């Protein structure tokens, strides 16, 4: 008998005013503006869950406007709210206008219309966590036995990424006691199940079919990017790229995984015919997963999994929530591929990649969408120019082992900017000038601090490659200062004045850091070394540093 329906059960963790609480899918869409943000077990988990909620929005509002009326460009089945006709290419422009207006109407209403709940009720039977026919984000026992001889075992300590313990290596500092690692309650399971379909690795052995490459999880290879507003409603809407038409998305029928006629057809559609719409991408699986529908919370958790083929990564611009890397050479020459974030660099240091500024960069779809909303706000009162927006980055780190790609940690970072600054993308707009300031900052550090550090290491007969450790330490020191500076920018500020302001902050920080290094110098540093041009010691390299700093 089916049980634990995600429409009603409280499994989504959100932050409210005073605490973290659990709500159902229906509660989320009925009162999203009441909640600050998703607040699950990990940011990568929140990212995965958010995309499922966005898939619901893309599906519903590809068919209906904010009043719950069909857009009228194709037939929509009344029984299941399925799109039964295709959009004609000649209607594309009018359809796109209707989508924009739908987004604006929902944004101005500050709440999601009832048609979302009506749609979900039509598909209630597909949202049971436990079911022997249509389990949510899973397959039945019959399917996995037919496709992969029953699959391989996967345990509670595997699916819970706060533990991530294998059978061969114990996870220390686990948030769960040893006696409880194998147990998962239903609300946890729902969150981790969605996360697992996005991030897993490749260490498991059982496979479906005979593909060239198998998925480690579509989200695993993304340098995830999203926009965060003042509450959960705004966050969902800012990332709801309703008129996204990369890879002809608008001409395709939105097909989230739960709308497949059968589970077998869902697997076939995704991984044999290819994903061609954003709702499918946001609900894509990387594994066939079977969970015994009769399990109870008293049972140690075990499920059975089998690998599914990998989604094509090259030029996969249907994906709007990642940064991209252009490949000049190699196997993927002249192609863009998703690029994961660097765990050792604050996101502002890759500002050009995040905003699509500079040669060989491509703007993430959500940033492009925000720019379009900025254009719309010139004729529609959206209130954007009053808002600060957080630009957020998230990704999962792996162990670097190509045979497993085991998840080991996550990267998360945020950058606060005023919305009208973030959409100022003209030739001399704020985005270009901020990126220039960051490029100049890197150059200033290389011309002054890096040369001093290398000279100091030379005096101490140490490897000059160690200079990078000092440079990264300095970037860490100026991180908060730069974040405060970029957050202080308003659209009406004089760009030259703000740039000079930052250069002053940077120059002072560089000098203070070098002064600390000089103050801790020893006798050897003052004695120095003989070079072809004379003695090089802490005093001479400090004087050279001051000259370069003042010339900078």
**If strands are numbered along the chain, what order do they take across the biggest sheet?**
3-2-4
Structural class: alpha+beta
According to DSSP, the number of beta strands is 15
Distance between the amino and carboxyl termini? 73 Å
Percentage of helical residues?
25-40%
Task: Sum up the overall morphology in one term.
Answer: globular
Largest sheet: 3 strands, antiparallel
How big is the Rg? 26 Å
Percent strand equals: 5-15%
Average pLDDT confidence is: 91
Low-confidence stretches: none
Oligomer: single chain
In DSSP terms, counting alpha (H) and pi (I) runs of 4 or more, how many helices? Answer: 18
Quick structural overview:
The protein has 552 residues and is an alpha+beta fold.
Q: How would you sum up this structure, described in words?
A:
The protein has 552 residues and is of the alpha+beta class. It is built from 18 helices and 15 strands. Strands 3-2-4 form a 3-stranded antiparallel sheet. A hairpin with a 4-residue loop joins strand 2 (12-15) and strand 3 (20-23). Helix 14 (430-459) packs parallel to helix 16 (495-519), helix 15 (467-488) packs antiparallel against helix 16 and helix 16 runs antiparallel to helix 18. The N and C termini lie far apart (73 Å). The model has no long low-confidence stretch (mean pLDDT 91).
Keywords summarizing the entry:
552 residues; alpha+beta; 3-stranded antiparallel beta sheet; 18 helices; 15 strands
């Amino acid at each position: 008998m089916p049980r634990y329906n995600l429409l009603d059960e409280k499994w989504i963790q959100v932050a409210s005013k005073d605490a973290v609480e659990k709500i159902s899918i229906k509660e989320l869409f009925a009162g999203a503006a009441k909640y600050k943000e998703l607040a699950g077990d990990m940011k990568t988990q929140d990212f995965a869950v958010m995309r499922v909620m966005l898939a619901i929005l893309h599906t519903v509002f590809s068919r209906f406007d904010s009043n719950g009326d069909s857009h009228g460009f194709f037939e929509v089945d009344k029984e299941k709210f399925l799109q039964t006709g295709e959009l004609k290419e000649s209607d594309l422009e009018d359809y796109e206008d209707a989508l924009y207006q739908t987004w604006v109407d929902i944004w101005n209403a500050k709440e999601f219309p009832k048609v979302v709940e009506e749609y979900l009720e039509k598909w209630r039977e597909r949202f049971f966590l436990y079911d022997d026919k249509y389990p949510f984000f899973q397959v039945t026992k019959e399917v996995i036995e037919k496709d992969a001889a029953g699959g391989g075992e996967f345990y509670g300590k595997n699916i819970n990424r706060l533990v991530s313990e294998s059978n061969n290596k114990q996870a220390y500092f686990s948030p769960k006691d040893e006696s409880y690692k194998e147990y998962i309650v239903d609300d946890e399971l729902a969150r981790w199940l969605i996360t697992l379909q996005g991030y897993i690795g490749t260490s498991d052995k059982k496979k479906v079919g005979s593909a060239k490459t198998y998925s480690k999880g579509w989200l695993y290879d993304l340098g995830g990017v999203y926009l965060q507003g003042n509450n959960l409603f705004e966050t969902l809407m800012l990332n709801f790229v309703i008129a996204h038409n990369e890879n002809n998305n608008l001409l395709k029928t939105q097909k989230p995984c739960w709308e497949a006629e059968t589970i077998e057809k869902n697997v076939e559609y995704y991984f044999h015919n290819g994903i061609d719409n954003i709702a499918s991408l946001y609900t894509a699986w990387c594994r066939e997963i079977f969970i015994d529908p009769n399990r109870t919370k008293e049972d140690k958790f075990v499920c059975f999994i089998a690998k599914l083929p990998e989604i094509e990564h090259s030029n996969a611009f249907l994906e709007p929530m990642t940064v991209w890397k252009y490949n000049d050479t190699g196997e993927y020459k002249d192609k863009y591929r998703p690029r994961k974030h660097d765990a050792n660099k604050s996101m502002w240091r890759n500002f050009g990649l995040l905003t699509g500024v500079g040669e060989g960069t491509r703007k993430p779809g959500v940033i492009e969408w925000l720019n379009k909303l900025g254009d719309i706000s010139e004729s529609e009162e959206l209130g954007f120019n009053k808002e600060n927006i957080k630009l957020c980055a998230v990704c999962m780190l792996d162990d670097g082992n190509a045979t497993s790609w085991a998840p080991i940690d996550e990267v998360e970072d945020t950058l606060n900017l005023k919305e009208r600054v973030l959409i100022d993308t003209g030739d001399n707009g704020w985005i270009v000038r901020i990126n220039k300031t960051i490029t100049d900052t890197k150059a200033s550090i290389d011309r002054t601090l890096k040369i001093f550090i290398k000279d100091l290491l030379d005096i101490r007969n140490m490897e000059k490659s160690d200079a990078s450790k000092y440079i990264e330490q300095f970037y860490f020191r100026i991180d908060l200062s730069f974040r405060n500076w970029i957050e202080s920018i308003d659209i009406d500020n004089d760009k030259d004045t703000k740039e000079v302001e930052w250069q002053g902050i940077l120059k002072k920080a560089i000098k203070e850091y070098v002064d600390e290094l000089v103050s801790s110098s020893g006798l050897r540093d003052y004695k120095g070394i003989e070079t072809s041009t004379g003695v090089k010691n802490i005093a001479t390299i400090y004087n050279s540093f001051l000259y370069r700093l003042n010339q900078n």
